[in-house]
Amino acid sequence: MLYEANKERGNFASSAVSLTSDDQLIMKAEGDINFDKVKINTIGTRYFTGHVQAPTSAKRDWTWDTSHPFDSLSWMVFHNGVLTNAPELEQWCRPSWNNPVDTAIIPELLQHTMESCRYKKPRPVYYIKQVLEMLEGTFALSIIDCDTNEVYLARSGSILHYNSKGDYSTLPGRGYKEVPEGSILRLNAETKRFNKVGSFKVKSPFLFI
Fold first, then answer.
1. What is the pTM of this model?
2. What span, in angstroms and rounded, lies between the C-alpha atoms of 69 and 39?
3. Which residues, in sequence order, are bridge partners of residue 46?
4. Could you give all domains of the chain from N- to C-terminal order, each with its CATH number?
């Protein structure tokens, strides 16, 4: 199980999300989620995704609001990496922001970008591309469009893998490939395969090493 494998890096916090055709069931916990005791209702579930957060250098107590996934009205995001320009993005998008976790600004940026397009409704990948090109630092992202429950993957600097069965993980494994930097992949709910649907300009700090 991917959850158990990822726990080896550390498990300061854990989360699991069940996606149906029109809803999301989010579970967050400090430390482990014991799936032998906690049963997730699988009726109508099309896809499960989750996150295991290792301890970070930032000393803070566990809270629901500072744990993955982070969400806005229409977007949900899991993130591994470090955004170096998060404070600047926060001041531009949410001047009164007080969440200490850099990831939290990403769904807010997606929401802000979407709501700024008042007179047109481009495909969701358009908003994702715009936001990814704002981010500096490193990131491996899984992004959920909460209006459709479609799952997208993208990375820059950080590592992210996927396979032909609809699984993805920061850990490598048999049958897994790296998500190409600069590519946006979307999960096909019918075939359970990730397909490239867009691209973005990469600002990885490792491009020049």
1. 0.88
2. 19
3. none
4. 2-199 (3.60.20.10)
Res. 13 pLDDT band, cuts 50 70 90 = confident
pLDDT the model gives residue 2: 43
Q: Give residue 5's pLDDT.
A: 46
150, 186 Cβ separation under 8 angstroms = yes
| Residue 68 region by backbone torsions, left for phi larger than 0, else alpha for psi between -120 and 50, else beta | beta
Q: Which of 133, 141, 128, 27 is nearest to 79 (CA)?
A: 141
User: In the predicted model, is pLDDT for residue 41 greater than 70?
Assistant: no
User: What is the residue-wise DSSP string for 111-140?
Assistant: HHHHHH--S----HHHHHHHHHTT--B-EE
Rounded to 5 degrees, φ, ψ at 89 are -65, -35
Spatial distance between the Cα atoms of 11 and 36, rounded to a whole number of angstroms: 17
Burial class (CB in 10 A: 0-12, 13-18, 19+), 91: exposed
Q: What is the pLDDT of residue 209?
A: 44
Residue type for 158, please? Answer: S
Q: How far is CA 16 from CA 24, 84, 90, in A?
A: 10, 27, 26
CA atoms within 13 A on the CB side of 194: 27
Candidate from 9-13, 90-94, 113-117, 134-138 with smallest mean pLDDT:
9-13
